[in-house]
Amino acid sequence: MFTWKKYVYEVYRERSFTKAAQNLYISQPSLSARIRKIEESIGVPLFDRSTSPLQLTEAGKVYIEAAEEIFKIEQRVENDMNHLNNLETGHLSLGGSNLFSAYILPPLVTKFKQRFPHVNIRLTEGNTAQLEELLGNNSLDFVIDNYHYDHLLYDRELYCSENILLAVPKNANINRELSRYQLSYDDVKNQTYLRPEHPAVPLKAFSDLPFIMLSPGNDTRSRGERLCQKAGFSPNIILELEQQSTAYMAASTQLGATFISDILVRQLPSFETLVYYKLEGDAARRQVYFYYKTHKFKTRVMEEFITLIHEQNDRSSHVAGSLPPVSGR
Questions:
Q1: Rounded-to-integer distance, Cα 235 and Cα 222, Å
Q2: Which pLDDT score is estimated for 105?
Q3: What does pTM read for this prediction?
Q4: Which residues does the chain have with pLDDT short of 70?
Q5: What's the CA gap between 95 and 101, in Å, rounded?
Q6: Among 139, 168, 189, 292, which lies 20 to 30 A Cα-Cα from 210?
Q7: What is d(CA 288, CA 291) in angstroms, rounded to the nearest whole number?
């Protein structure tokens, strides 16, 4: 009924088949034939052809009112599509744990907003179970996590590699025997400790120290326990906390040693009360990914955010691959 509405509207606007045909660049007989087909499909005439200029019938008035509403909707949709294509509007929902929400997502959001200031961005903080549920029900577009999500349900984009270090109170006597393994804050900050010239510490040496650990079920807690088990001891856990940043602060009071992400160490100021050690084993290394639903339609906003993820990943890889040689200790 409305496929050829522009022809009906042009006749209505000009009150003449001849003038309307000229404006539409078709012949007058062709225009008349199309109008008649529309009228036949409706069952009533749209124009009173006995008058000059042409007048609308009652049915014609209803048709024109409806056509004008459709034109408005089409224009609004076209404007919205143009805004989305130019990212003059849009939404992006991101989720992450306390560590990632505090130290990784804000710089990414800032860079994205600099490029696309009109996109509305929402951040959600939670644990892995909460974030995966929100991602699964489409409340979030992306979740950044170092936990492995089901690859059948979620696609992923690598953001960076993460290493788990051991932060030990500087007043611990064992540090005197392990000076050649110690890392400075700058070693961690600049990632020079990743070079083979920096040896991993024998973790067994810390078996008598008190440990500050994250709560059971946390991936860092699980990895720390596996590292200790492989070294031949069970850690003496004197305090369990929910967040890495809190455990890090507790360790800085020289209460005990803690397993800590190098991402967190690089983001916070140095603690003169701590020394750091590189750890060996698969449990000390993990990948950080941005996850999104496999079958979810990727909006232009999501595609641009993935582009930013790749740029940041390439930049991190370049920095890690161009570290200067490090002298042995």
A1: 12
A2: 94
A3: 0.70
A4: 1-4, 79, 82-84, 315-329
A5: 7
A6: 189
A7: 10
